Prior knowledge:
The chain is mainly alpha-helical. The chain has helices at residues 2-10, 15-27, 29-52, 60-83, 87-109, 111-135, 143-152.
Amino acid sequence: xxxxxxxxxxxxxxxxxxxxxxxxxxxxxxxxxxxxxxxxxxxxxxxxxxxxxxxxxxxxxxxxxxxxxxxxxxxxxxxxxxxxxxxxxxxxxxxxxxxxxxxxxxxxxxxxxxxxxxxxxxxxxxxxxxxxxxxxxxxxxxxxxxxxxxxxxxxxxxx
Length: 159
């Protein structure tokens, strides 16, 4: 009964979810071996990239390293989810990995265009966040709210 309660309360994080890991790994040993080998290769590449790329944080090379690091985490997440039988959730992360691959390709083929798009997207996202915070009254009146309003309207306030 305790295991059933644990599963109903914790789902895939419960005892049954944890106990499936060796079963799924054994039943799909070749695939998990390949996944583990790819992970080791990715981590070696990431370590090399972190130690090799010495440039400003918004240089295309530095952005590529950050995308690679994020991809490593996502890839490991796919493995961890799949070990527990969470295949649909793993597919979601796999789609994100494919998007990262397109981003890396754009950084290689058209770095300036991609960086411009990235900056514009970041600015638009920040603007939307500021508008939301102001519209929902999530920031009390005062200097911080005044700065947000100035940034939201495109004006710069002097500190």
